[in-house]
Design brief:
It is a single chain. The protein has 447 residues and is α/β, with parallel strands linked by helices. It has 18 helices and 16 strands. 44% of the residues lie in helices and 15% in strands. The strands form five sheets. A five-stranded parallel beta sheet has the order 2-1-3-4-5, with helices on both faces. Strands 7-10-13-6-14 form a five-stranded parallel beta sheet. A two-stranded antiparallel sheet has the order 8-9. Helix 13 runs parallel beside helix 15. The chain is elongated and about 95 Å long.
Length: 447
């Protein structure tokens, strides 16, 4: 692994000596003044505290540099260097953001030992924060084909568009795409719909101090934080047209310019975008830029809905029912048949919620057909049971589910008389038939 080190010292002999001393894993940037501090990220920084060319009546100039660097990147390990490390000065350095100290004249062994400790600390942080790859479960031909497509994306740098209905596993696939290159690279996830439009540019590209009201500190953007890795943009369809222009420019140039800055910085970022919408239809409606769509489609993956890969339902249900070992349960054959015949508008997320409810509500270790029917079609919204409703399924799948429940109850109440039910619902017979077909509801005895 390569580490980045910033050295700021007004003595050229010191910077030259350090460049000769420090081993190759460290990529060194050295400065002899505090002007034009680099905005990029460094693993560590050696900062001389005293600069004779500046007035230091109030405090050493190096303290101000430490403060600035710690604001640019709080994770940088800052080492304060001075020939006059008094207790009060060391305390001031710690408050400013330094974490270690080296006394002048520099001892080569102490310098190398300090860097070795920083290397070990960085490796420990990475190991503890390394994400576990979420399970991608499925034995269907569609799932195996998709896994093969993902494996082909290793070393590919073009943007990737992942398309699929709500709850079908787009985030899981994004993690698997990222994992093809190993876990050492950054993976930055952005839910576009969760960021207010007026803050999106600042979140994505960052800003400098004073760029706008409330910009009290310089802030790195998510695109810059993803340098050398992947930027996952979930719900890309929610991006406004003005922000689409800025994203398109970023994809074309791979340059980041923080709001308020006049300088652009090159980055290497692969964008993975996900959507549950048909983006071409949004293009036709002038809600999404066609040039951005084609740019995002460097590689295009489509996740089939769960109803089109029913072979995965048994494997997924088994996983969800067995992950809680304290209340492990299994499905009877007729219960599994009901699950496989369900249309799953909320896809894998809905199946997971159903399995979790079955673990709580099914009275026996073997889940029966009637248990599944009760969970799938029973009234699940009330003051007492609202906490069990998984709002993350999305509004439309939830509405479809409740509408299907009401229509089935209505058909039963009117003994299959569609005319009578349509009259009661104050809609036309044709509209009711169309809705029953859309919700895939079978009815008997309809006249």
């Amino acid at each position: 692994m390569k580490y980045k080190l910033l050295i700021i010292d007004d003595d050229p002999l010191i910077t030259q000596s350090l460049q000769i001393l420090i081993p190759k894993p460290w990529d060194i940037t050295s400065l002899h003044s505090c002007k034009n501090l680099p905005q990029e990220n460094f693993h560590a920084a050696f900062i001389d505290l005293h600069f004779p060319q500046y007035s230091e009546r109030r405090c050493p100039k190096g303290l101000k540099i430490i403060e600035k660097i710690s604001k640019i990147n709080p994770h940088t390990e800052i080492i304060a260097i001075s020939g006059d490390l008094t207790p009060s000065l060391m305390e001031s350095c710690l408050k400013a953001g330094a974490s270690r100290f080296l006394a002048k004249p520099l001892n080569p062994d102490e310098v190398l030992l300090t860097l070795q400790k920083i290397e070990a600390w960085i490796q420990l942080q990475e190991a503890s924060s390394r994400p576990q790859l979420p399970p991608w479960i499925g034995s269907s031909q569609a799932t195996q084909t998709l896994k093969k497509q993902v494996s082909f994306l290793k070393s590919e740098t073009a943007p990737i568009l992942v398309e699929g209905e709500t709850g079908c596993g787009k985030e899981v696939i994004a993690h698997w795409i990222h994992a093809q290159e190993g876990f050492s690279r950054p993976f930055i996830q952005v839910n576009i719909s969760a960021i207010p439009e007026n803050l999106f540019e600042s979140e994505l590209f960052g800003h400098i101090k004073g760029a706008f009201t409330g910009a009290d500190n310089t802030k790195m953007g998510l695109a810059e934080a993803a340098h050398g890795g992947d930027l996952f943009l979930d719900e890309i369809e929610a991006l406004s047209l003005p922000m689409q222009v800025k994203l398109l420019r970023f994809l074309e140039t791979q340059e980041v310019r923080r709001i308020g800055s006049t300088q652009s910085q090159k980055v290497q970022v692969r964008v993975i975008a996900a959507t549950n919408q048909n983006l071409q239809q949004l293009v036709d409606k002038k809600l999404f830029r066609e040039d951005l769509l084609w740019r995002l489609k460097g590689h295009h993956l489509v996740i089939p809905p769960l109803r089109k890969r029913k072979e995965d339902i048994q494997t997924l249900a088994k996983y969800f029912l067995e992950r809680h070992k304290s209340r492990k349960k299994s499905l009877s054959p007729d219960a599994l048949e009901i699950l496989e015949s369900h249309q799953w508008p909320g896809n894998v997320r809905e199946l997971k919620q159903v399995c979790e409810r079955l673990l709580v509500q099914a009275p026996l270790p073997i889940i029966r057909k009637e248990d599944v029917l009760k969970v799938l079609h029973g009234p699940i919204i009330s003051d007492d049971s609202f906490s069990n409703v998984d709002l993350s399924l999305g509004l439309q799948p939830l509405l479809n589910k409740y509408e299907a429940f009401l229509l089935k109850k209505g058909i039963a109440h009117h003994q299959g008389n569609i005319d009578s039910l349509a009259l009661k619902l104050k809609i036309s017979r044709a509209s009711l038939y169309r809705r029953l077909k859309e919700l895939r509801i079978n009815w008997k005895g309809a006249s």
